Amino acid sequence: MLPPKLWIHLAVVACGNRLEETLVMLKSAVLFSHRKMHFHIFTEESLKPEFDKQLQQWPDSYTEKFVHRIYPITFSAGNPQEWRKLFKPCAAQRLFLPVILKDVDSLLYVDTDVLFLRPVDDIWKLLRQFNSTQLAAMAPEHEIPKIGWYSRFAQHPFYGSAGVNSGVMLMNLTRIRSARFKNSMIPTGLAWEDMLYPLYQKYKNAITWGDQDLLNIIFYFNPEHLYVFPCHWNYRPDHCMYGSNCKRAELEGVSVLHGNRGVYHDDKQPTFKALYEAIRDFPFQDNLFQSMYYPLQLKFLETVHTLCGRIPQVFLKQIEKTMKRAYEKHVIMHVGPNQMR
């Protein structure tokens, strides 16, 4: 039993039709993780009762692995209606997490269309790798800058040579709250909350991807504050749909799957859809290998007509490793370590 100060804090923002996606993401987190988690769910008032109802229906063996709190959508700076309409409904809420979660030291934010294929504990450990100036971590938007979106089309500053993708983002909120950020508006640094609305006002006609673009602008001016983690922690269709280009995923397997472009809900990338449906439909108390891993292998055979489907080992490597660890832990707990010899 860990004290609350050692729990993992996981935040998500869910509006509109994102209820199911969010629940599947949270399910993937509890299926594979070890340390207790605190879920911070930001959502519309209409979705709150359903989140509470669904999470309370999960088996005790899983609900004891987390606590959850549901928050309303609020924007503390500028025009709330402008923020609400930025890119996708409510997506800009993520920018205000350091202000709202004043008692939280560190946080993992993920989009609703993310799936964990290994324990959340593992990405949480990356916080320890931050140097003294780093206060957030994201993966590159593209592995090949010359064909990336930012390097070809962006009308605003962006981080590095290819920009960063904000769908999976680690944050040291304590450091963010205390930092002063360089910017293009005034010669002195600004606090995080004071910077957000003026930054949006300056660049609102140049940005395409909403809050992600604003984060790219912030870290363009403050690169020393960003830790960049490899692509297998935020693996998207772009990493395989034109040919495999995430080398770390080829070596270690996908750790965190990010099904952007709506790929869980159409047939354009059946490999991503198969993983989503496997986790969504998995009965909590069943055997992971029998009810998820083996059916998933068979399902992947139907996806070999796509470039992503031709590299099934990239998608299955981490999930197999994670399931083996979970099975061995289960056996040790119920049989005893001495009888394992």
TrEMBL record:
EC id: 2.4.2.42
GO BP: protein O-linked glycosylation via N-acetyl-galactosamine
GO molecular function annotations of the record: UDP-D-xylose:beta-D-glucoside alpha-1,3-D-xylosyltransferase activity
Catalytic activity: 3-O-(beta-D-glucosyl)-L-seryl-[EGF-like domain protein] + UDP-alpha-D-xylose = 3-O-[alpha-D-xylosyl-(1->3)-beta-D-glucosyl]-L-seryl-[EGF-like domain protein] + UDP + H(+)
Subcellular location: Membrane
Entry membrane topology: Single-pass type II membrane protein
Superkingdom in the source lineage: Eukaryota
Enzyme class: transferase
UniProt-listed Pfam families: Glyco_transf_8
Keyword 4Fe-4S part of the UniProt annotation: no
InterPro entries xrefs: Glyco_trans_8, Glycosyltransferase_8, Nucleotide-diphossugar_trans
UniProt keyword list: Glycoprotein, Glycosyltransferase, Membrane, Signal-anchor, Transferase, Transmembrane, Transmembrane helix
GO cellular component terms, A-Z: membrane
Keyword Chloroplast: no
Family: Belongs to the glycosyltransferase 8 family.
Biological role: Glycosyltransferase which elongates the O-linked glucose attached to EGF-like repeats in the extracellular domain of Notch proteins by catalyzing the addition of xylose.
Designated name of the protein: UDP-D-xylose:beta-D-glucoside alpha-1,3-D-xylosyltransferase
Originating organism: Myotis brandtii (Brandt's bat)
